[in-house]
């Protein structure tokens, strides 16, 4: 970890106040003149690009971009000829549980041998298994393990990420998780948003007293978490056997009093009116949505709540994929995220996510890239500073390998077509 910290401090020092010009970009993808908040419905089918382009950044900010033929003589500190490669905004991964201790490889084997995710959870595995590990791991060790994952996702092109608590299941361990998230945000260039997921599962001490646990989250955890300013969002695992719609309502209501905006886990295994509740509480996003009834789609119409699909979770657990076509064809927006966590998605690869979205959810490459950039930024409240190539936004972008078209990125699944990643204007 110290190595990782020094590495970033060093990165910071070598490039003070720099104007860098990237030239001969074969295609500059997701360009905007006026920043949009999100992209919905049919508009998701188009992806604005400029062919044969340049991009100028100053320190960590995008200064200008345009076609090579319009490039005036500019004074810059360095010029990088990208020689026909493409540039697109870094991925915005709006749903992860990256801070966790150890792994759940044994459950992977158990599932190969026929147990389901739900059965494993019922036998004390699942989230409770991760919570036990996390409670017994020091803050420093938890930071070290998580920092490695941050480096891993940056190299895979992620420039902004939301991270949830929820493997603490008690006050002390939840605070430990959230402090680690805060420290990661301070030490790495990737933009990190923190979510308090106090109600992720019922700890065994409360097995016959769910109400007491919810009261504990509301009366003890929430005040401490917000006192230290450790989270901006509140999440609940709204699911049969976890927290009901009524429980979720109580938790969101309490979160609202402390100024936390909801982003909730809903409709993963069962559809129980959590989507409608999320909309009612002005959730920034409702995530998972593997099961979507017509009434769930209806309730999202006209709202500002972003539906978020997590296809690598569906892939890993062999559960249904979020019906992206139904959602987008109803005129709604959609964001894509990884759900990186030790149980249902031990992978933070957004490149795999967009491939899987195209292959399994029938999204076009344009829709998938919109969903993984600007719409992902919206689902973290970051659309004003991230998610597109736009003057004034942060210089977070991917330089691709030499590829024939941007559609090649999802097409060549399993092979990230990434040559270099820049986050806050610095090469990773
Ligand atoms: O998003 N569904 C709830 N939470 C996580 C998985 C948690 C776990 O298995 O550790 C998810 O899939
Ligand atoms: Fe999740």
Summarize the structure.
The protein has 428 residues and is an alpha/beta fold. It is 37% helix and 20% strand.
Task: Provide a descriptive summary of the structure in words.
- It is built from 16 helices and 16 strands.
- β10 (261-266), α9 and β11 (285-288) form a beta-alpha-beta unit.
- The protein is globular, with a radius of gyration of 21 Å.
- The mean pLDDT is 95.
- The longest helix has 18 residues, at 210-227.
- The protein has 428 residues and is of the alpha/beta class.
- It binds N-(iminomethyl)-L-glutamic acid (NIG) and fe (iii) ion.
- N-(iminomethyl)-L-glutamic acid is lined by residues 97, 126-127, 130, 237, 265, 268, 313, 339, 341-344.
- The site of fe (iii) ion has 5 residues, from loops.
Largest sheet: 8 strands, mixed
Q: Write down how many β-strands occur, each being a DSSP E stretch of 2 or more residues.
A: 16
| Overall geometric form | globular
Query: Would you tell me the structural class of the helices and strands?
Result: alpha/beta
- How much helix, percentage-wise, in residues? 25-40%
Total of helices = 16
Bound molecules: N-(iminomethyl)-L-glutamic acid, fe (iii) ion
Radius of gyration: 21 Å
Spans of at least 5 consecutive residues with low confidence? none
């Amino acid at each position: 970890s110290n190595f990782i910290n020094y590495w970033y401090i060093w990165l910071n020092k070598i490039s003070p106040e720099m104007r860098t010009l990237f030239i001969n970009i074969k295609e500059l993808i997701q360009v905007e003149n006026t920043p949009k908040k999100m992209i919905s419905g049919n508009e998701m089918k188009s992806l604005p690009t400029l062919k044969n382009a340049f991009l100028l950044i100053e320190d960590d900010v995008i200064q200008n971009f345009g076609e090579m033929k319009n490039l005036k003589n500019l004074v810059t500190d360095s010029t990088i000829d990208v020689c026909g490669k493409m540039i697109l905004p870094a991925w915005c991964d709006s749903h992860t549980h990256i801070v966790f201790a150890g792994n759940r490889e044994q459950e992977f084997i158990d599932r190969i041998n026929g147990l389901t995710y739900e059965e494993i959870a019922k036998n004390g595995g699942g989230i409770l298994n991760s919570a036990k590990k996390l409670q017994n791991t020091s803050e420093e060790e938890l930071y070290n393990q998580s920092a490695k994952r941050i480096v891993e996702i940056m190299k895979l092109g992620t420039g902004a990420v939301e991270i949830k608590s929820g493997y603490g299941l008690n006050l002390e361990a939840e605070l430990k998780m959230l402090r680690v998230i805060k420290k990661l945000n301070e030490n790495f260039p990737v933009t990190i948003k923190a979510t308090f997921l106090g109600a992720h599962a019922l700890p065994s001490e409360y097995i016959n007293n769910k109400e007491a646990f919810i009261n504990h989250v509301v009366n003890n955890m929430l005040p401490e978490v917000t006192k230290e300013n450790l989270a901006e969002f509140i999440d609940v695992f709204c699911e049969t056997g976890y927290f009901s719609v009524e429980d979720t309502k109580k938790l969101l209501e309490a979160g609202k009093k402390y100024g936390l905006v909801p982003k909730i886990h809903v409709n993963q295994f069962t559809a129980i009116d959590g989507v409608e509740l999320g909309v009612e509480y002005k959730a920034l996003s409702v995530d998972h949505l593997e099961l979507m009834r017509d009434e769930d789609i209806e309730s999202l119409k006209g709202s500002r709540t972003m539906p978020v699909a997590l296809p690598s979770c569906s892939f890993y657990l062999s559960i249904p994929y979020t019906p992206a076509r139904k959602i987008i064809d109803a005129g709604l927006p959609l964001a894509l995220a990884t759900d990186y966590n030790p149980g249902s998605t031990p992978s933070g690869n957004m490149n795999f996510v967009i491939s899987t979205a195209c292959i399994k959810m029938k999204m076009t490459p344009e829709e998938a890239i919109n969903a993984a950039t600007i719409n992902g930024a919206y689902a973290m409240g970051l659309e004003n500073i991230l998610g597109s190539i736009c003057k004034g936004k942060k210089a977070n972008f991917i330089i691709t390998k030499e590829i024939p078209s941007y559609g090649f990125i999802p097409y060549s699944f399993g092979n990230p077509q990434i040559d270099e990643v820049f986050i806050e204007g610095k090469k990773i």
